[in-house]
TrEMBL record:
Its EC number(s): 2.7.7.15
Top enzyme class: transferase
InterPro entries for the chain: CCT, Cyt_trans-like, Pcy1-like, Rossmann-like_a/b/a_fold
PANTHER family for this protein: CHOLINE-PHOSPHATE CYTIDYLYLTRANSFERASE, CYTIDYLYLTRANSFERASE
Keywords assigned: Lipid biosynthesis, Lipid metabolism, Nucleotidyltransferase, Phospholipid biosynthesis, Phospholipid metabolism, Transferase
Region annotation Disordered: where it falls in the sequence: 1-56
A Pfam family this chain is assigned to: CTP_transf_like
Family designation: Belongs to the cytidylyltransferase family.
UniProt-recorded name of the protein: choline-phosphate cytidylyltransferase
Residue intervals of the Cytidyltransferase-like domain: 64-195
């Protein structure tokens, strides 16, 4: 009997433990109904007050953006627009590396340094162009041009020169001293993409320029390659002329056939004219019969 009572008490204790361990439905629903608080994101630009640099009542904030700007396109322009419109009052300086440094550290450019400088001068977002900008920005350069912030996208830009001491990111020092302003890249457009597009249509653009009077020598096209392309162009012209000739001939034949059908069809000009003449003749004979003339 005592053994049965002991077993019964153990079973009751186990049931109580299970009841405690199972969460209630009310607590589940209350947790689900609780709204998730959004994590505040960092502002794109720091807040400025009236009278501070960058405000309408303060001095212009001097922002700096640099690059190669080869084959200047709308991706470049949008990046500079972000810089210029980052604050209400901005003076935008744009640095452009010269040919010697760019060709040595990055590779050949399509445009010369003077062409790249001039392209930037004609961008409405740019206030000043700094020619021959350094590959790695130093404190002395920032002080010389009184630069408040350096603008660039946040993707690390490899330092090919080795001057920064951090080969993974040429802007590492700028970020460390708190003078980096992040911009966003425009997806789907870049100088490399444009060059690849031209290379992929190599023969098409050679044909285009040969038609416009450029020589193979001017385009650095081998002599035999130029002759083969010109032969293909001549064959295409002959093919086009033949197709045009047959189109004109068969077009005229179709016109003759169409005219013949129009002439002799039920509603054609000839049968319509004959019907009118028969009608006039019948009416004339009927009039003569009424008058007793026939």
């Amino acid at each position: 009997m005592a053994r049965n009572d002991k077993r019964k008490r153990q079973e009751e204790e186990e049931e109580e433990e299970e009841i405690v361990s199972i969460p209630s439905d009310e607590s589940d629903t209350s947790d689900e109904e609780k709204p998730i608080k959004p994590v505040p994101s960092e502002p794109v630009r720091r807040e400025i007050e009236e009278g501070e640099p960058g405000s309408l009542t303060g001095r212009p904030l001097r922002l700096f953006a640099d690059g190669i700007f080869d084959m200047f396109h709308f991706g470049h322009a949008r990046a500079l627009q972000q810089c210029k419109q980052a604050y209400p009052n901005v003076y935008l300086l744009v640095g452009c590396c010269n040919d010697e440094m760019t060709h040595r550290l990055k590779g050949r450019t399509v445009m010369t340094e003077e062409e790249r400088y001039e392209s930037l001068r004609h961008c409405k977002w740019v206030d000043e162009v700094i020619e021959g900008s350094p590959w790695v920005l130093t404190d002395e350069f920032l002080d010389e041009h009184r630069i408040d912030f350096v603008c660039h996208d946040a993707i690390p830009y490899t330092d090919a020169s080795g001057q920064s001491g951090d080969g993974d990111d040429v802007y590492a020092h700028i970020k460390a001293i708190g003078k980096f302003h992040e911009t966003q890249r425009t997806e789907g457009i870049s100088t490399s993409d444009l060059i690849i597009r031209i290379i992929s249509e190599y023969d098409t653009f050679i044909r285009r320029n040969l038609k416009r009077g450029y020589s193979g020598k001017e385009m650095n096209v081998p002599f035999m390659k130029e002759k083969v392309i010109k032969l293909d162009m001549a064959m295409d012209k002959v093919k086009h002329d033949i197709e045009d000739y047959f189109h004109k001939v068969f077009g005229k034949a179709e016109d003759v056939q169409h005219s013949f059908l129009n002439l002799f069809s039920k509603e054609g000009a000839l049968r319509t004219s004959l019907r009118k003449r028969r009608k006039i003749l019948r009416e004339s004979l009927a009039d003569m019969a009424r008058e007793g003339l026939c």
